[in-house]
Amino acid sequence: MHDETDAPGVDPGRTDPGSSMAVSRGPGGGSSVVAFVRRHRLAVTITAAALVLALAGTGAVFAGAATNAGANAAIEPSTTPTPTAEPARAVPAEAVAASRVRTCSVAEAAADPRLANMQAQVVKASTGEVLYDRGGTTPSRTASVMKVLTSAAALSVLGSGYRATTTVVKGAEPGSIVLVGGGDVTLSRTPSGDETAYPGAAHLDELARQVHEAWAADPANPPITKLILDASYFGGEEWHASWALSERELGYMPNITALMVDGDRDDPYTNTSWRSEDPIGRAGQAFADELGGVGTIERGTAPAGAAQLGAVSSPTVAELIDKALVVSDNTVAEMLARLVSIETGAGNTFASLNAGILEGLEGYGVDAAGITIVDGSGLSPDNAVPPSYLTRLFAKVNAREASLGYILDSLPISGERGSLAYDDRFWGDNSVADGRVIAKTGWIDTGYTLSGVIRAADDTDLTFAVYALGDVTEEAKTAIDTLATAFYRCGDNLSNQ
Predict the structure, then answer these.
(1) CB–CB of 374/242 below 8 Å?
(2) Is the pTM of this model over 0.70?
């Protein structure tokens, strides 16, 4: 639009009195025009006002309105009209990103009746975004996935290099010694150099050698004839009331005591082996056999300040976690849980585990509301942990925060390592996810579980937890693997529908 001074036939120096419009003089004068205006002043004024309003409606406003009656307001030549300012518009402080529409559904796999009462949650590890949720905030039994919480607490409270130590001290009576259990369930009665179900385990024959050497150093010592067994480091019941006794008979769990050998297995070299009802007595007899000449074995406690005659130590916490997770060793998990509870000052019984382990988990900054911990292994159906806790803890495991990288390195891997490499896991069509599911398995009579990290087909890292609870059979394992494989295929495109 041109400025008014550009229009042909306009005299910029004259306006009609009382009007905001400049009046054009045609060639040769213009008195007739002036006379016309004087006779029809009202009509001209109304017409001029209407024109101004019309122009204002299109955004054009002209300067030069009269300031008072009888005064002429001159229009400056070549002056650009000043537009009327529009009121400021409210804008959002930040641009709101559009939510992504994800289209990959796992509805068919999730509807598998073999999953019974299914709970699940999947989270994008890098952002914490929940991609899939079915009852994910409801605390429920975890089965052996509980070992992940126990391991995380042990790393926090004990540290990756902690070792449990078994000692022998001099007894109060002449010729007596005391074998003091320090909670090492891996201590072995096999010959040194043998590798048992617990790699790196200490051996009783080495402990006996140290004792003989220290005893012989004092010629005044009589022969060793009495062995006292001190297992007081752990207190309370040895068997939790919620555990099925069949777990001991089938070889999955011993009585939990601070003194035992080979996890109280009949066969020290196998993971699953019948356990006795008296781990302390079995350990005492095995040590007496190594010492020789012992005529009496009894229970008791070590005298305060007694001289130490020998000591051997367990594998490190990092090594114990590997055993607890990769083959789901219940005995080691209970050992770690009890040591955590003792170290935090919560106590040395089953009843103290909830407070001890939860204190150990506090430092990871994951909300533990609703969690109930009854044991360290997950064997009890009374444990309760929401899948949402696991997905968030595993995000930290995946990022190797603090010392949690030890957990990531110890987990089973689909088709490659531990309990996810067995013939009944990730077989058939599910083998497409081999090497991509890094997770802890779980099984009790009323539930199968799986939780960990999925390195999805699109290279998105997902953390997940799946519980199949209720009336379940072994077929639940395949159904869980199929659902996990579906998560793997979907990756970041996983839909919550």
Answers:
(1) yes
(2) yes
